[in-house]
From TrEMBL:
Keywords of this entry: Cell inner membrane, Cell membrane, Membrane, Signal, Transport
Family: Belongs to the bacterial solute-binding protein SsuA/TauA family.
Transport in keyword set: yes
InterPro entries the UniProt entry points to: ABC_SsuA_sub-bd, NrtA/CpmA_ABC-bd_dom
Protein name as it appears in the record: Aliphatic sulfonate ABC transporter substrate-binding protein
Protein localization: Cell inner membrane; Periplasm
């Protein structure tokens, strides 16, 4: 498809991008959260750290764990809080939580040794593992599937055939949703420069906290985003044009993994096992107690963002996410292929990215079936 081109259209897009940039600068919360490489995560310190009780595992006083304040990271939100099952399994080893806004910043923190374990999306995991030559991390569990949608302004976009010339937001260059959007557009025949985001359809890399503002201002025509941002846009008059689950076999694809520094895994395997045991128990509790789980997630989001989600956002956001232990490894391979097609990765390294031995040990002890690494496990 030929790209739409005129000086007035280009000027309008530039103005919209400038307004998005201004919004990103002026939004107060962004001053303390991580948005990309070189930015810092919010160190929650003692403000939200759960209470550690009992004996420290392997003599380790604390374990530093990263995650996002997203519904797709509900396992971490529920399991790491006061009374959470992850902290319960860790006993006297205290969880030190750190909140991130996007995967690249969390990978940077992991590589620098600032965190030990993290909940994160597949694309940053692949990118971080590849850039380190397979030395930075291991994926040790799944956590969630689904929870991503393309939401649009129905006055500007009526169908999937109306995307040409429009501006669609994604959270960050190279993040999981950005890769998915680039791949979808390419499969539909649109040409987009992966780095600049310019082309037949324009991609505006926009922090999830800024996206609802940009949507209300008309600076973007839609967004390919995770929950709860997708449901926030719907509450503001947006329409779900595509649920990403529709693009995957059985409607399942990995949206959140658990990763660990390889050095930490080698030195503290019992701590890692305790975190995984807590994660498995937390997922089971969430699935058995959905109403209570929603309240627990919202309580943590209130602490992290200063504002709880209203029911018309929380309910659909929670419903759109499936919490599970299976990392859905075959879908990670597909997402790596999508990143290559988009031009964001040249030769992704996947061999050895998983170590599911500790997880399968936990699952076996709980009477649950083991999970598969799709041939990508560490030898």
């Amino acid at each position: 498809m030929p790209a739409t081109s005129s000086s007035s259209a280009s000027s309008a897009r530039d103005t919209a991008r400038q307004r998005i940039a201004v919004a990103a600068i002026t939004l107060p919360l962004l001053a303390v959260t991580a948005c990309g490489y070189g930015s810092k995560a919010e160190d929650e310190g003692d403000k939200t750290s759960p209470v550690a009780q009992g004996k420290a595992i392997e003599g380790l006083s604390e374990v530093r764990i990263g995650y996002f304040a997203n519904v797709t990271h509900g396992t971490a939100l529920v399991g790491l809080g006061d009374g959470g099952l992850i902290q319960k399994e860790l006993g006297g080893t205290k969880v030190k939580p750190q909140v991130f806004n996007a995967g690249p910043a969390e990978i940077e923190a992991l590589n620098s040794g600032a965190i030990d374990i993290g909940w994160i999306g597949p694309s940053p995991s692949i990118n971080g593992y590849t850039k380190s030559g397979g030395k930075s991390l291991r994926i040790i569990s799944g956590s969630a599937s689904g929870g991503v949608s393309l939401v649009v302004n129905p006055k500007k976009i009526k169908s999937l055939n109306d995307l040409e010339g429009k501006t669609i937001a994604a959270p960050q260059l190279g993040n999981t949703q950005d890769v998915a959007l680039l791949n979808y557009l390419a499969e539909k025949g649109y040409k987009v420069d992966a780095t600049s985001g310019k082309g037949d359809v324009n991609i505006a890399r926009t922090d999830n906290k800024v996206t609802p503002i940009a949507f209300k201002n008309g600076d973007i025509d839609g967004a390919w985003v995770p929950e709860p941002t997708a449901s926030k846009l719907v509450a503001d008059g947006g329409k779900v044009l595509l649920d990403e689950r529709e693009l995957w076999d059985d409607g399942k694809f990995v949206i959140t993994n658990i990763i660990v520094r390889q050095e930490f895994l080698e030195k503290h395997p019992k701590v890692v096992e305790a975190v995984l045991r807590g994660s498995v128990n937390t997922n089971a509790w969430i699935n058995e107690n959905p109403d209570e789980a929603k309240k627990a997630i919202n309580s943590v989001l209130d602490k992290e963002t200063g504002k709880p989600l209203p029911a018309n956002v929380l309910d659909p956001a929670f419903k759109n996410v499936e919490f599970l232990d299976d990392p859905l490894a075959s879908t990670l391979r597909d997402e790596a292929r999508h990143a290559v097609k988009a031009g964001l990765l040249k030769d992704p390294l996947l061999d050895g990215i998983y170590d599911l031995g500790p997880l399968n040990k936990v699952l076996s002890a709980a009477g649950k079936p083991s999970v598969d690494d799709a041939g990508l496990g560490a030898k």
